[in-house]
Structure formats: structure tokens, C-alpha cells
Design brief:
Elements (H helix, E strand, L loop, with lengths): L11 H14 L11 E12 L2 E4 L1 E3 L11 E2 L2 E3 L7 H13 L7 E5 L3 E2 L4 E9 L15 E3 L19 E3 L2 E3 L1 H15 L3
Length: 190
């Protein structure tokens, strides 16, 4: 087995526009509507201290779905959203106080079916470096922003629990699967 390639340089110049092009050029796998609940998440990237970071949240233990788990800001689609992109932006605003006007949406990733009955559509967004994040205590126990490079290390553990421990938090399940797919796209950028 060959060792994984090291992380490429991860900053705004090497990521933002190349990611926009790569996401526009790839064929995104979408799952047909059906018995699963439609949901969307935002994979929010931004720069801090010269490196790309990603916002993640830990859900409060009291939440009915996914309590205590680390996730991207997001949730189930609301009939008033109009699109799954709108769902991701609405949820990012509700959970982290990130206004939709602050998000440069670069594109979407493949739909991901969860074992809890959701079909999650991830959207990749770029935030200004100085964006103010105000987590909602009702939906977020903790918000944290690890460097993206941490997810270029091989995940630990065996399926289905394969994930990473970053900033003292376990990133696993659907969130880890989405990050693995995203890292694969970033590795292939020109």
C-alpha cells in the first residue's frame, strides 16, 4: 500500500477558484427523491492564520436527531426554502449566524444517504476571513474551525466508525464521509 500524498498548499489562491471550476465540471451524483428526508449542509471554508479552515459544530446532546455529534451546519429542507442550496444557507444562518450574503457558494458535492433516513446534499462555501460567527445555543453546543489539512491525514478506525479526532472532537459518520470525498476533490485540483 502506498502512503497518502501530503496535503497540497491549502489557501485561498489554491482552493477558492480551482474548487469552483472543479465542482462545476464534475458530474454530481444526486439521489432520487423518495422515502428519505431531504437535507442540506454547508461545508464553510475560510482563511485564518494563513491556512484554510472549515467550520464544524457539535450538536447539543438534547437534540432529537444526531445529538452530541459533530456535523456541518445544516438540516432538513423546509418547503419555504425553494432549493437545497437555500436550505444549507438558511441552516448556516440559524446555527452559526452566517448571513447568506457572506457565503460565496462554490458548488455542491454528491448526495449522501445517512443511516438515519436523510439524503444530505453538501454545498461548499467560501466565507470572508473576518466573518463573525455567533452559534445558536439551541442548535450548537460548540462551534470550532480546524485546519482543513487535518483531514488529509488518513482517518483512524474501521468502517463505519472511521473518522478523525480534531480539536478534541470525534468527526465520524456522514460528516467524515463527506470530508473524505471533499479531500479527494481537493487533492485532484490543478
Amino acid at each position: 500500500m502506498t502512503a497518502p500524498r501530503p496535503a497540497p498548499r491549502l489557501d485561498e489562491t489554491t482552493l477558492r477558484e480551482p474548487l469552483r471550476r472543479a465542482l462545476a465540471e464534475r458530474e454530481t451524483r444526486t439521489l432520487p427523491p423518495g422515502s428519505r428526508t431531504a437535507a442540506a449542509v454547508l461545508l464553510p471554508l475560510f482563511m485564518r492564520d494563513g491556512e484554510a479552515r472549515v467550520w464544524l459544530v457539535r450538536r447539543p446532546e438534547s437534540m432529537r436527531n444526531h445529538g452530541g455529534q459533530v456535523a456541518f451546519p445544516g438540516g432538513k429542507s423546509d418547503p419555504t426554502d425553494g432549493s437545497l442550496r437555500a436550505t444549507a444557507l438558511r441552516e448556516a444562518e440559524e446555527e452559526l449566524g452566517i448571513g447568506p450574503a457572506s457565503v460565496d457558494v462554490l458548488g455542491s458535492l454528491d448526495d449522501y444517504p445517512t443511516i438515519t433516513g436523510f439524503t444530505v446534499t453538501p454545498w461548499v462555501g467560501w466565507l470572508p476571513e473576518d466573518v463573525l460567527v455567533k452559534p445558536s445555543p439551541a442548535e450548537v453546543a460548540r462551534a470550532f474551525a480546524p485546519p482543513l489539512r487535518e483531514f488529509f491525514e488518513p482517518p483512524a478506525g474501521v468502517l463505519p466508525w472511521r473518522g478523525w479526532t480534531v480539536d478534541g472532537e470525534l468527526v465520524w459518520g456522514a460528516t467524515a464521509a463527506i470530508l473524505r470525498a471533499f479531500v479527494g476533490i481537493v487533492r485532484d485540483l490543478d
